[in-house]
Amino acid sequence: MLRALHRWPGLLAAVLLLALSLSGAALSVFPAVERLGTIQPAPEQSVADLAARVTATHPAVEQIRRAPSGRITAYWFDGDSAGAAVIDPATGQDAGSADPSALQAWLSDFHRALLMEDAGRWTTALGALAMLVLALSGAALIARRQGGWHRLLAPMRGPAANRWHAELARAAVLTLTLSYLTALWMTASTFDLLPTDEANPAFPAEVSGLTGLSPADMPALAAVPVTDLRDLTFPYPGDATDVFTLTTASGTGYVDQGTGALLAWETPGPWTRVGEWIYLLHTGEGAALWGLLLGLLTLSVPVLSVTGTLIWLRARKARPALPGIVRADRAETILLVASEGGTTWGFARALGQALQQAGGSVHLAPLSDFAPAGYGPAKRILILAATWGDGDAPASAKGMVERIAATRPHPTAPLAILGFGDRSFPAYCAFAERLEIAAQQAGWSMLLPLDRIDRQSPQAFARWTRALGDAIGTPLDVTHQPALPLGTVLTLASRRDHGEAVQAPTAILRFALQRRGLLDRLAGRGLPRFQPGDLLGILPEGSTVPRYYSLASGSADGFAEIVVRKHPGGLCSGQLVNLAPGQTIRAFVRPNPAFHPDRSNAPLLLIGAGTGIGPLAGFIRANRIKRPVHLWFGARHRFADFLYETDLADWTAEGRLTTTTTAFSRTGNRQHVQDCLRADADRIRALVAQGARIMVCGGRDMARGVHEALADILAPLHLSPEGLKREGRYAEDSY
Amino acid sequence: MKPLFAALALTTALIAPGLALARPVTLTTNLSDYGGRGAYLAIYVTDPSGAYAGSLWMAGGKSKYYKHLSDWARFTAGDVAQVDGITGASVGAGQSLELTMDLADALFDAGYTLHIDAAVEDMRDSPNEIAVPLTGNGAGQPVQGRRYIADFTYAF
């Protein structure tokens, strides 16, 4: 629901918002330009002095106005012709043309009414309303994705378009919301929908009847500094009953032209005062710097429109359609999916089809749409939940454990949870387990106990569907073979070998990347863009199960590099380590956004051992901005498997790498990388105190050892790896 | 144009005696090419003593701008009820506004004056742009405005 609330007004209003935001950004420049081109009055100058000077230059002056920028304009009549000029307050002389800028007038008519008067004003108001809905629903979506409002400002993860969209929106949302609220207020004011309480003092019943006093000698005008002036209207020449009308920042009153005394005064009411502030906040007139900031942030709207549309299109594509899907409030089976890569959707779709064939009605949705209050006659709720990384929820399902824990169970429908994961990870199906515990504690009745699918096993899934069929009294046996990416043929360009001497043959393999033309991109040919830390899936000969290797390069480097150590009896590693330059393999890219460095300039601490140096080397190679990077690397022997030794020296000379600390387990004092971390405890604490980010890559035992060492090192700072992880400052990729 | 005498009568002291003796009058206001947005115009009448007698027409629908029709606003204290039912659209530069209304005979050759205040957004206010005595002889004679109004004519 929240997502729909964010999506449809966004798409419908995109064009309108583009027009409004671009014209608004352009308009924001005018107050600043006017302010820069305006001669400001001396602070002590009074309206009496100004009026006298203007009268000396233009004896027939009728009105003097001061704009919020400080620009002073005088209007007069010479005989029958009307004259107007911008005035230098110090001299009272003309200082420029008073003609309004035609471009500004056109832009502002376009911005507030699309050049269509009242119909246009209502349209733009609807646009502002749509943007308000977008801003608020978007903020709620970010909060949900981040796992709560209190973590709204925590670093973000996820694919580039989503991250750009969310980061930019987060930066601009407050200002934009203010802009839309003030726009709506101004529309309401224009259409008289708000109370009016402007100062409108009663015309004085009696005046002195005298004329001819110079404005310079009028006490009521002498008491007002020019900086407070808004408008001074002169009496009609020759009409002794007329008066000066003075409007300042604090009110409106009448001044006797014979005595210069204040005859009446009234201050505006609160609605008018608030309205003036709202006008200032929206237009920047009178607050030029604020106006420029607002204009700049308004430029985020076109970017948000484009990235938002991209995200929507991508999500649409990633979600396999289920023909015959019914609405959530009418379905017997609610099928919810939490998936990072999208393969779990394939299983869900196969299950949905089988249930439909058995005569059932199915609603298929992402887990983030979970809303049991809206599931009317549902008979069961099935959740297929993939675990991402080290027991984490997929980015699209962040915060779901807390939400399930906080929702009241559906009155009739029991719940079944199926976890998808990889048994070789320590936190196998941990997210599904946390969901299960949360659901049980919230009082849900469980249709089936939690089951787990290891590495997308079709057999395990079929077994689970049979159990489900038994539980619901509908025979089911769903076989689903997830479609593997076909992969791209990659040719080995070069290889560097290490580790033979320590019985750990290890190779750095560099594959050539073909240049992809636009047609290739559109047709999905070749490897898509990737960054160091992403995964290269390799399909070995004789197996349908891909193996994943961390990429030690980005597509910007022009090659795909991985580090492979030969495992005894390992099918894929054996084939790779024996690959000769010129030979080929089939491979595809799987994004791994959880293991990308953030984009800040804070120190980056990289900790790796063995082949785990691969992605870390990629990060260092990509460190073109020369962010401080500190590496701790563990290997067996300096002369056997010190991977990237010469590269590290070159990168240090180029400033991409600040320090390197090595630990060798088969030589010298036989250290592991966690031992040299402990030896560097003071330095690490100092770096973490500066806001450093930590990334760890290597075998599972090494990662555990590093985690323990860091927990000890950080304890005096009252920090922990878990705490840093929650802030997005600690990432681990272990195998 | 609907007979407007009733509205005028309600808001002024010009009542019954003249009611039977009214005639249709056409008011034509031609605006000059002043190069700005649509002008707001307040058309109203003052009595022989110079006091406000009533409004004939308000061109411009948004009452928050009426304060810029400054003489009219001063006479009426900005009372929107004064132009209730006799309000139309603002008049663009170079355009003309033609109104026909039944006005009491008693208004003519009796010292009454017709005034027009004009105002345009982001440009100067022009109160009392037109001030023309209502007389039988003056009918059909164009009067020049000062800033926004090229000329104004009332004719029987």
UniProtKB/TrEMBL annotation, chain A:
EC code: 1.6.2.4
Domain (Flavodoxin-like) ranges: 333-469
Any GO molecular function: FMN binding
InterPro entries linked: FAD-bd_FR_type (IPR017927), Flavodoxin/NO_synth (IPR008254), Flavoprot_Pyr_Nucl_cyt_Rdtase (IPR001709), Flavoprotein-like_sf (IPR029039), FNR_nucleotide-bd (IPR039261), OxRdtase_FAD/NAD-bd (IPR001433), PepSY-ass_TM (IPR005625), Riboflavin_synthase-like_b-brl (IPR017938)
Pfam family of the protein (one): Flavodoxin_1
Domain of life: Bacteria
Keyword Transferase carried by entry: yes
Gene Ontology cellular-component annotations: cytosol
Entry keywords, A to Z: Flavoprotein, FMN, Membrane, Transferase, Transmembrane, Transmembrane helix
Transmembrane segments: 122-143, 287-313
Domain FAD-binding FR-type: 485-598
Name of the molecule in the record: NADPH--hemoprotein reductase
From TrEMBL, chain B:
Signal peptide as annotated in the record: 1-22
One Pfam family this sequence matches: DUF2271
Protein origin, superkingdom: Bacteria
Keywords associated with the record: Signal
Protein name stated in the entry: DUF2271 domain-containing protein
Organism this protein belongs to: Paragemmobacter kunshanensis
